[in-house]
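Hi everyone, sorry if this is the wrong subforum. Our group has a chain we'd like a structural model of before ordering constructs, and none of us has done structure prediction before. Sequence below.
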Amino acid sequence: MNLNETQQLKILQWILFLILAVPAWTLVFNSYDSGIAKLPLFFLLSCLLLSLGLAFAIMNGELLFIKSPADITVLLFLCAGVFSLLLQPVAMNGLETLKLWFGYGICYFAGTHLFRDDRDFVRLAKALVVIGAVVCALGAIQYFIPNSSTFDFFLGEGNRVGSTLGNPIYLSGFIVALFPLLLSYFFFESNRSVRLLLFMFCCGLLLLLVATQSRGSTIAIAVSMFFFLSLSQKIKRTHRLGIMLFLAGVAVLLFLPQVSHRFESLLDQGSTFARRVVFWKAGIGAMASSPLMGHGAGSYEETMREFRDADYWMLKSEDIVPHAHNEFLEIGVELGFVGLALFLTVVVVVMVNGMTVWKKAESDGRRTMLLVGLLSAVVGVLVDNLANVSLRQPPIGALFWLSMGVIISPIFAGRSAERIKLRIPKYIVVLPLALWGIVTFIIGQAEIKKIKSDHHLIHGVLAKAQGNKNDAIAEFNASVQSYPGNLKALENLSVTLLQTNRAEEALTTVQELQRLSPGYPKSRLIESLALASMRRYSEAGNAIEKEIARRDHPEAFYAQALIRNGLHEREGELRSVTMALRRNIAGGTNYNLESMCQRLVELSTMVEEREVAKTLLEELRSRFPTEKSILQALKRVTGQ
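Answer:
Right subforum, don't worry. Here is the predicted structure as tokens:
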């Protein structure tokens, strides 16, 4: 099959559009994680784009290369990620992150090479309209008729819409990346009917943004639009007026009650912002401990646990935190100042080159609007990722890196392509495609196992909720057999085994969990309870102390009290019960209050101890005035 250069370019562009569309649309129902298939599909499609581009180059006997000032820095950033695997005790933990970054690198170079004139950008804009329209349509269904749709699984707290992205902040991040590009296309397009449709679609995007209730993305799009308006000063007056009127409508939408009430709760204890402060503090500590090269790609989730305050649970913060909710901090933790400097250099070089082109652009040039949209999209995504995690999601991250590539493409920079002659036999053309097929087979097999594992996991969770613990154990075992690295399955299996008095099996399972993830939340708690059930109290005591150092929840002190009871350490058990009750007061929890209050009274045999118990029970009564067990214990300790 003989294809000319234009036909080859269009094929590569269509694959690029699939790279943007498939992760944005893919849903995996009946799975613990609905986004489990997004990353592998994104990575494999990115590899297909690269391999097909190499195949076309071999067919043509020349490699088309467009030099751009950020190319070397992007490659160095990817190399830093590969090198960082050497810094991790378990290198496999970084492969998922590297697959993500590798795909982003391909999207960046696709932006620099596949867009050479206005028609190419218009083709991209039309593809983005279709991609975004599907996401928005399903989001609208989810929001307005949730009870009759299959999207209930993805509805967040307070009916916050996530659509096909599965999470409200991923959807809001997608809108932040998409909106400036479509707005610039609106002012570039001359056809009135198309402009009317674009206007309606942009309004729909903003309404969907309101439905996500994302504070960070709201601020990001406001900054992005301010930047958009500032750069639009070169555009003729009628366009400027239209932009200002449109942005006025944006301002009205963003101050609707659905968004404003989220801002009002910003500083509440347990708010998402308060929880993110915990992530950031831990991230800063992790970054300071290895400032130069970091802890390795994909290491944030494991590393931050060592630096997180033990009382993080008081803010209702998550036990498992995969990302820092600040891209700059997360890159700093994983790749150190070296990786962070490389990432910032790419962004700065792209923005400086874009602004240089903008300054030289014609005042009435429609192409200038396209550049303004791209620059505004980059700014918006960067602001959004000061408190969100959208750059770790393929649809948003891919669009961000693609936008940076297009900014310094021949459309705006006017660079000419260099043609490097390739003296390679034509039959070698099958090699890159064959390699892609092999990679697809290997990764496909692995990902199918993960999806099967996730399928068994959710069935195990449902069986356990229905009280069928034996069925749950069978499902959790099947999940682990399908994919031994499924940490959530190992956790659920160890807990359920412990609850069915199979302590030895529980201990073996949780030790495997710790081997794969040494700091996995509550694993030491499970280990200590399993050891205590086997009457290995000394080992159980060591395990629970490690748990308390990581998480000083009342349940950890309660477990410590049980262990000390087994060791017949009355005073030690009393200290543990007292600490458990004090943690309840501090955290506003009522974990096992009745049994612990009763045990407090039983253990307080001396006069001084009874006075301390009385004071503690009065504090508890003040904190939990409706708990009758506290009043009963107080009466007993005072002899009434």
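For your construct planning: The beta strands are 62-65, 418-421. The two ends are 96 Å apart (CA to CA).
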